[in-house]
């Protein structure tokens, strides 16, 4: 009886002082991509909870692809569901979610501490709508051993890549080895397939929300990729090739070059990989006389506009987007930092030496068109790219289709 009374007195004292109890702790729920290493984030959250015992955070992981993740979150947010407090978003989504009223803008944030591309992607109409979780970009993966064998340097232009791919393939005489693997399937990655050579010609697709389409540059971009297929440098069925198919091709030793994201590095270097220790990464090539450009990737954290704990969620996101967390993710999960200085940090370089090569790629990567109507832009481009890769549309026809549709979408 005395012990019970003492327990009640302690509990009452904690309530009076504002201390946490199981009944009073703020419960936050965070959605992350299943590709985002949930176990790693759990470690980060456990550390946060230890320092903030008045907060309890649960994780929900889902969406094996950016498209699947977006489909799920679109359903949840459209229903104004308050069950999720924090959302992990593909870098292409903040503008869409902000325009729909699904995310809460952050208060004063110093975005200059992040890599410039993320400060730009997460700031919409002067408001900070998301904070970076981790960085990513498209890289040109290449067989370091094969290029060295034939005395070749990593290509800077697509014409150089074509020449080198043919030389290596001829020299190796391996019918299973082809020159280049890239995304041709009608998925999000196909937008980057189109944009990278388009950008390298000095052209913009969208500026200040308005279409700035260049038909000639679009035709050249589409013809470039179809040419790789027609010349036998890429697989005939490239129209069916998705992102992880590219990774599998390269990891199996069946491609000299591949255009893919950072996640493919760790898998290519795994103990059972035939190409472990034989892989290099550089910036994606440019069109001849053009400027090398690549697609920005990565994931951002937004606070749900329907959360009943917005301030607590915002404080947690600020911690998750901090430099300490970014370093932990880099060292323990090989997730690319959103802080430039971390690419040369001794601990990070020791854990992931290839980050030294990755920095120049990430720093010069470009965000895909920042527009609330990105879904329609994406669908238009990916469909056109796939049609060309499948041989059912010419580059000229596809460029006209892109222009016609986007003129209606981006008035």
Helix content: 40-55%
The beta-strand count equals: 15
Number of DSSP helical runs: 17
- Going by CATH, the architecture of the domain at 2-135 and 296-358 would be 3-Layer(aba) Sandwich
Oligomer: single chain
| Spatial shape | globular
Q: What radius of gyration results from the CA coordinates?
A: 23 Å
The CATH class name of the domain at 2-135 and 296-358 reads: Alpha Beta
Strand content: 15-25%
Q: Could you please say which CATH topology of the domain at 2-135 and 296-358 applies here?
A: D-Maltodextrin-Binding Protein, domain 2
What is the CATH homology-level superfamily of the domain at 2-135 and 296-358? Answer: Periplasmic binding protein-like II
Describe the biggest sheet? 7 strands, mixed
Give start-end ranges of low-pLDDT stretches. 1-19
Let me know the average pLDDT: 91
Decide which structural class fits the backbone.
alpha/beta
Q: Could you give the distance between the termini?
A: 74 Å
């Amino acid at each position: 009886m005395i012990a019970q009374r003492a327990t009640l007195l302690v509990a009452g004292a904690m309530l009076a002082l504002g201390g946490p109890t199981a009944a009073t702790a703020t419960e936050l729920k965070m959605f992350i991509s299943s590709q985002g290493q949930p176990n790693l984030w759990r470690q980060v959250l456990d550390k946060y909870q230890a320092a903030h015992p008045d907060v309890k955070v649960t994780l929900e992981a889902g969406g094996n692809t950016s498209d699947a993740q977006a489909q799920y979150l679109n359903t949840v947010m459209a229903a104004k569901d308050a069950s999720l407090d924090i959302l992990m978003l593909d870098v292409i989504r903040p503008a869409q979610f902000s325009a729909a009223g699904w995310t809460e803008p952050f208060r004063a944030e110093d975005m200059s501490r992040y890599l410039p591309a993320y400060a730009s992607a997460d700031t919409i109409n002067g408001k900070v709508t998301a904070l970076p979780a981790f960085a990513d970009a498209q890289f040109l993966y290449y067989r370091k051993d094969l290029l060295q064998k034939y005395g070749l340097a990593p290509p800077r232009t697509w014409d150089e890549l074509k020449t080198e791919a043919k030389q290596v393939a001829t020299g190796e005489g391996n019918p299973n080895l082809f020159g280049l693997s890239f995304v041709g399937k009608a998925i999000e990655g196909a937008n980057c397939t189109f944009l990278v050579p388009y950008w390298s010609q000095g052209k913009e697709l969208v500026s200040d929300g308005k279409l700035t389409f260049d038909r000639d540059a679009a035709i050249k971009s589409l013809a470039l990729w179809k040419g790789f297929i027609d010349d036998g440098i890429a697989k005939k069925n490239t129209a069916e090739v998705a992102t992880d198919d590219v990774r599998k091709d390269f990891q199996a030793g069946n491609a000299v070059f591949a255009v893919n994201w950072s996640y493919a590095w760790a898998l290519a270097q795994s103990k059972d990989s035939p190409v472990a220790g034989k892989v290099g990464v550089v910036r994606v090539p440019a069109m001849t006389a053009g400027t090398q450009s690549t697609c920005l990737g990565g994931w951002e954290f937004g606070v749900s506009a329907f959360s009943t704990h917005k301030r607590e969620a915002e404080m947690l996101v600020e911690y998750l987007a901090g430099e300490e967390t970014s370093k932990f993710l880099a060292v323990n999960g090989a997730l690319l930092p959103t802080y430039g200085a971390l690419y040369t940090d001794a601990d990070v370089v020791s854990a992931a030496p290839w980050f030294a090569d990755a920095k120049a790629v990430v720093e010069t990567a470009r965000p895909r068109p920042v527009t609330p109507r990105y879904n329609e832009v994406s669908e238009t481009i990916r469909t056109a790219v796939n049609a060309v890769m499948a041989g059912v549309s010419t580059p000229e026809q596809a460029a006209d289709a892109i222009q016609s549709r986007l003129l209606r979408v981006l008035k």
